[in-house]
Amino acid sequence: MWRTSITGGTLRDPMASFNLVDPSLAERDPDIARLIKEEEVRETVKLRLIPSENYASRAVLEATGSVLTNKYSEGYAGKRYYEGQQIIDQVEELAVSRLKALFGAEHVNVQPYSGSPANLAVYLAFCNAGDTIMGLGLPSGGHLTHGSHVSITGRYFKAVGYNVSQSDQRIDFDEVRALAKEHRPKILWAGTTAYPRTLDFAKFREIADEVGAKLCADIAHISGLVAGGAHPSPIGIADVVTSTTHKTLRGPRGGIVMCKAEHAKDIDRAVFPGLQGGPHNHTTAGIAVAAKEASTPEFKQYAHNVVSNAKILAESLLGKGFSLVTGGTDNHLILIDLRSKNVTGKVAAKALDRAGIVGNYNSIPFDPRKPFDPSGFRIGTPSITSRGMGNEEMVRLAGWMDQVVSNASDDKLIEKVAAEVAEMCKSFPAPGIPV
Ligand SMILES: *Cc1c(COP(=O)(O)O)cnc(C)c1O
To answer: Which of 159, 246, 365, 412 has its CA 20 to 30 A from that of 87?
Structure first.
């Protein structure tokens, strides 16, 4: 149909009109356009509590959805394998210099495609296949890429997992030290994905030094809190620090590796050409914008609000009879042990989602249940804090969660809560989403 619309006649080369007519997404692909609209609505009318998620700003989204996606630029600024890098070099240099200033890092690589590839680059820089590495076990709140047996990192390396202690559910440094001395890992990971407490990077450093390991801090979840001064920084303590850029840092989906100058060459070579081809320049631009946003006083306030909201939410949940892993939180994340409510993680997660409260079911340390329907529910405050919600909203949220979890099969009640949630959300516009 569009083939004849511009000329009124027949074109000899159909591609000519494909190029001439450059319709909007809604015109070109109404199906995808509609689905994006529907996701915008979902992200507007629901309370998004998955702690790894956030809202990227309009500015970040604009940079990410730009023509920079068109350019190939294997290599690094000033040393590329393709011509035409006049603009891209400046984009990447801005991203790097802003992140160096934001975190106080000696060297930053902004090219990893996401958090997992950033971690793989660290392995490639420091290890050979078969070497021993150590990280927090998955059931204790560690990440897949820290040596889980289902991950390449558990298959290509001899992975030793340390755990939280059974008594207080916090990282058991006696066990970390004992295992490190026994197994002498090349890499010691300090990083978590479902752990509600502050990480003591200095303690990890001591142990890494005792056994000659590289200390690698993975701050994927907490990098925004670190940037905003709401969580201690591992920069200057760890040899290498990796992060995603899309969690509390509020950038586009991406990954970064920060390191001491002495490791810069090894890390850069591991990312390219070791692991990847061309960097995602549109993402690099989005990361540069996010780094600029994260260096403002407003972002600092945001990071502290994320933590204070989590603390208030945790206290309110305790007041409603919920049981929390470690008894509370120091960061953006809360891990609920649902056993005191006599409901499983999956049943609670599905009922809460229908009520407009979106989290994820999650194993708790020493969970007696299987990972596919565990005893825990994981929530966090990064997204709702990005919408400007505060104390009052956290208290209301805890009340709704109690009602839904205690009446998980009461459809009428769930509908009523969903309506109340959507009504409250109207007062808190979401960044990046047109009203
Ligand atoms: C999210 C996360 C990652 C992986 O990030 P992706 O971008 O999903 O690959 C790595 N480490 C930790 C601790 C994380 O929480």
So the answer is: 246
At 379-429, the pLDDT tens digits run: 999 999 999 999 999 999 999 999 999 999 999 999 999 999 999 999 999
Q: What would be the CATH architecture of the domain defined by 297-425?
A: Alpha-Beta Complex (3.90)
Cβ of 145 less than 6 Å from ligand 1: yes
Give the closest residue to 118 by CA, choosing from 6, 324, 259, 320.
259
Q: What is the pTM of this model?
A: 0.95
How would residue 435 be classed by pLDDT, with cut points 50, 70 and 90? confident
- What is the pLDDT at residue 15? 65
Pocket test for ligand 1, best of 145, 146, 231 (most atoms within 8 A of CB): 145
Whether 432 is in the pocket of ligand 1, judged by its Cβ within 6 Å, is no
Atom of ligand 1 nearest to the CA of 254: 7
64-94 pLDDT, tens digit each: 999 999 999 999 999 999 999 999 999 999 9
pLDDT of residue 19: 66
CATH number listed for the domain at residues 62-294: 3.40.640.10
Active site residue 283: no
Mean pLDDT of the chain: 95
346 in active site = no
Section 260-268 average pLDDT: 97
Q: Which atom of ligand 1 is nearest to the CA of 219?
A: 13
Q: Give the up-direction half-sphere exposure of residue 149: CA atoms within 13 A in the CB hemisphere.
A: 3
Answer whether 242 contacts ligand 1 (Cβ < 6 A).
Answer: no
**CB neighbours (10 Å) of residue 247?**
26
Q: Would you list the domain boundaries of the chain?
A: 62-294, 297-425
Average pLDDT over residues 216-237: 98
Whether residue 191 has its Cβ less than 6 Å from ligand 1: yes
